[in-house]
Specification:
It comes from Myiagra hebetior. The protein has one domain. Helix content is 49%, strand content 16%. It is built from five helices and four strands, in the order αββαβαβαα.
C-alpha cells in the first residue's frame, strides 16, 4: 500500500502524476482520497493492480482551486491516509 501511495502521489512524468487515471482525476480537481487493499479482487484487478483500488474524492467547492494548484504548481491534494502511506514509504524506501 505504501508503494501504491507513492506511485500515485510521487511518481511523475513532466511533473504530473505518472498514472493516467490519477492524472485525469487530479487535473479535474479531485483529492487522492483512499487506497483500498483488495478492493478489486477480479482477475483483471489482481493482474493490473494487485487488487488495490483507489478512490478520488471531489469536494465541489474545492475542485477549481485543486485543479489550478495541480496544473499550475503540480501539487497533488491527498488525504491524511494517503499522506501517511507516502511518509511511511519515504522512511522505509531505499530509492
Amino acid at each position: 500500500m505504501r508503494l501504491c501511495a507513492w506511485y500515485l502521489y510521487g511518481e511523475k512524468h513532466r511533473g504530473y502524476a505518472l498514472n493516467p487515471v490519477a492524472n485525469f482525476h487530479l487535473q479535474n480537481g479531485s483529492v487522492l482520497w483512499r487506497i483500498n487493499w483488495m478492493g478489486d479482487t477480479s482477475p483483471r484487478g489482481i493482474g493490473a493492480s494487485c487488487g488495490m483500488m483507489v478512490n478520488y474524492r471531489y469536494f465541489l467547492e474545492e475542485t477549481a482551486s485543486n485543479s489550478a494548484l495541480y496544473l499550475g504548481s503540480k501539487q497533488v491534494q491527498a488525504s491524511e491516509q494517503v499522506l501517511a502511506l507516502v511518509s511511511q514509504f519515504q522512511q522505509h524506501s531505499k530509492l
